[in-house]
Amino acid sequence: MAIASETQPQEKASTEVSGEEKKRWTLNDFDIGKPLGRGKFGHVYLAREKRSNHIVALKVLFKSQLQQSQVEHQLRREVEIQSHLRHPNILRLYGYFYDQKRVYLILEYAAKGELYKELQKCKYFSERRAATYVASLARALIYCHGKHVIHRDIKPENLLIGAQGELKIADFGWSVHTFNRRQTMCGTLDYLPPEMVESVEHDASVDIWSLGVLCYEFLYGVPPFEAKEHSDTYRRIVQVDLKFPPKPIVSSAAKDLISQVKNHFLLFNPQWLLHLPW
Ligand code: AMP
């Protein structure tokens, strides 16, 4: 497709032709279709890029709201990180543009919408379906962590489903690039003690922990540490108060996997999740 700005270098892009100007998108490049949803800072619309007819999701964010909530830096980081990731289970961010009042993100269209809604509809997923999602997530996280990117906000609301039912991680608003952070925070890597060098792995384990929580939620329909009060949830997490209710019936292999994430999440290798036994 012709959505080929500096943020989509691997496709035949006008930008790839040496000496040619980088494509600058404007709203005129798109036919706007139905609204797909509403977020905290704006709306998302189905849209078609006029030249290529490529269908995308156009996220429209209001600058005033971004400024009010002081999340401009977060958005900048999200765009910077997400636009460089290329993985079948990570939602593509093709590019962005802005006018006086709004910022527009050109996103891959996830035709089957939010995973969260699917889960609400089904109440809980079959083990087979949960295993497929967990393996997809593990693949995407292995890819991210290999690039020193930690998502830090893996939850059903941030997962979308593509036309073929494939899971797509979206919303990199809380993600960080640890390599940059290490450089800015600690200067040169050579002088760091082992525990600080190890901290990349340590940080990445945040996502693995979330993956365990998500696996539980897929199978039981509720997250494992849910409680009425925030403080109770906090306490349950700190104590790792993990219980498996009798219903729905979940295999011991699946429960064992969740427990392993719980017990060993710092050492946990997401490669294990690629070939789940159940
Ligand atoms: P957000 O602002 O990212 O929370 O998006 C608001 C809603 O728009 C989401 O909950 C989805 O229902 C929908 N949406 C966002 N991005 C996409 C996309 N790439 N494809 C399809 N629907 C989307």
From TrEMBL:
Matching InterPro entries: Aur-like (IPR030616), Kinase-like_dom_sf (IPR011009), Prot_kinase_dom (IPR000719), Protein_kinase_ATP_BS (IPR017441), Ser/Thr_kinase_AS (IPR008271)
Keyword field: ATP-binding, Kinase, Nucleotide-binding, Serine/threonine-protein kinase, Transferase
Cross-link (Glycyl lysine isopeptide (Lys-Gly) (interchain with G-Cter in SUMO2)): K155
Pfam families: Pkinase
Domain of life: Eukaryota
Keyword hit for Transferase: yes
Domain Protein kinase, first and last residues per copy: 30-278
Catalysed reaction equations from the record: L-threonyl-[protein] + ATP = O-phospho-L-threonyl-[protein] + ADP + H(+); L-seryl-[protein] + ATP = O-phospho-L-seryl-[protein] + ADP + H(+)
Residues binding ATP: K40, K59, E108, Y109, A110, E157, N158, D171
GO molecular function: ATP binding; protein serine/threonine kinase activity
EC number: 2.7.11.1
Chain segments carrying region Disordered: 1-20
Biased composition, class Polar residues, residue ranges: 1-17
Broad EC category: transferase
Active site as annotated: D153
Similarity section: Belongs to the protein kinase superfamily. Ser/Thr protein kinase family. Aurora subfamily.
Protein name: Aurora kinase
Organism encoding this protein: Populus deltoides
